[in-house]
Amino acid sequence: MKTKKILPVLIIAFASVAAWALINARPEVATASVAPPALLVDVVQAKRNPVTFSVRSQGSVAPRTQTTLVAEASGQIVEVSTAFVSGGFFRKDDVLVRIDPRNYESVVKRARAAVARAETQLATETATASYAKEDYARLQRLNPNTAPPSALALRKPQLSAAMAELQSAQADLEKAEGDLDRTVIRAPYDGLVRQKIADVGQYVNVGSQLATTFAIDIAEVRLPITQNDLQYLDLSKLRAGMPLDAVLQTQLGGETISWPASIARSEGVFDADTRVLYLVAQVPDPYGLLAGAKVTQAPLMMGTFVSAEIAGRTGGDLFVIPRQSVYRGETIWLVDEDSTIRPARVDVVRADENYFYISDGLVEGDRYCATAVEQPLPGMKVRVSS
Q: Which residues contact 262 (CB under 8 A, 6 or more apart)?
């Protein structure tokens, strides 16, 4: 009975010893540590280049001259030009609107008649005064002791009154003719109609708005410039009457369109809210409609939103480094001959959206990582892209 109880225990113990022996009898697998591959980077040689800075801005195109045409005479509009529509092009002195002139023509006729009457009255008084003067001369020859005649006897007051009446009538005629002329509204310049307000059949009073127009000789764009960017522009040229070169661009139908422009002036006052100074860019003949114009590009329409690049000061010979190659805005990682990297702290003159402009901290011929490296460490190995 005791032998039966011991036998299972012996079997289990024997199986455990056999399993332990099998495990320890397996050959050991050799393991080796594998180093991570070196980072593949693009390498560029540093080189100084002459740099002329530019400043970027943006704004909307507006006319330099815009006018609200108003009626200078009261009456019904009887005629408008075919160009008197929104977007209509007109030349200087073209007739845009005619107001019914009949009442004003009647006033002119009455004024001319009044002038004729006054001229007749003056001629009569002149002749009468001459007769009076001759009568006094005859009396003096007959009687040298004859008393001098009075001004009234010589018709001087009547003559003066007749002359004043003529001048008054002539002034009334001049005003009447001016009022008649003002029934015709002419274009003050070559331009376009932005908004048509009145039309044929409408009765207007003096001061009634007829249309909004603008001249097409020059388009302007107000460009905000920050205080930081102003240091890269030579505003002394503007004060001396010399414009700054600029280029305006916009996207039309998926195509980039450019127009040459010039910075003609600054507004001379910083905006109190945004702390920017506005420069004004000008583009001559933006629609290409003026006499002798050679249309070589798309028209620059009013209201177009454009970006601007303004030519600035010369910065000298600098290293121009892509933004992704500058670590934390002040460090460039140089690649040594043994393909390890080390940091070089640089002096940044200016940074824009694409590049850093560096004056010191590099030597011509230095090789730097053009590829952005995450968490770089001095001595880190890299592979140079061929």
A: 243, 244, 245, 246, 281, 282
- Percentage of the chain modeled with pLDDT above 90: 60
201-210 per-position pLDDT tens digit: 999 999 999 9
Architecture of domain 36-64+219-386: Beta Barrel (2.40)
Q: Which CATH number fits domain 65-99+184-216: 2.60.40.180, 2.40.50.100, 3.40.1390.20, 2.120.10.30?
A: 2.40.50.100
User: Minimal CA–CA distance to 222: which of 31, 33, 57?
Assistant: 57
Q: Is residue 386's pLDDT more than 70?
A: no
Which residues touch 256 (CB under 8 Å, ≥6 apart)?
249, 250
Judge whether 352 and 317 are in contact, CB under 8 Å.
no
SS3 (DSSP) at 132: helix
Contacts 24+ apart (CB under 8 A), 123-128: 124/162, 125/155, 125/158, 125/159, 125/161, 125/162, 126/159, 126/162, 128/155, 128/158
β-bridge pairing 305-322 and 355-360: antiparallel
* Mean pLDDT of the 299-325 span: 93
pTM: 0.73
| CA torsion through residues 262, 265, 270, 273, sign | negative
Residues β-bridged to residue 206:
none
Q: In Å, what is the CA distance from 81 to each residue of 91, 96, 102, 191, 199?
A: 12, 5, 20, 14, 10
Do residues 333 and 311 make contact, with C-beta atoms less than 8 angstroms apart? no
72 with 178: CB under 8 angstroms?
Answer: no
Using one digit for the tens of pLDDT, what is the confidence trace for 356-372? 999 999 999 999 998 88
Any idea what DSSP says for residue 339? S
Q: For the segment 33-91, what is each residue's pLDDT rounded down to a tens digit?
A: 555 677 888 899 999 999 999 999 999 999 999 999 999 999 999 999 999 999 999 99
Question: Could you tell me which of 83, 41, 99, 307 has the C-alpha nearest to residue 191?
Answer: 83
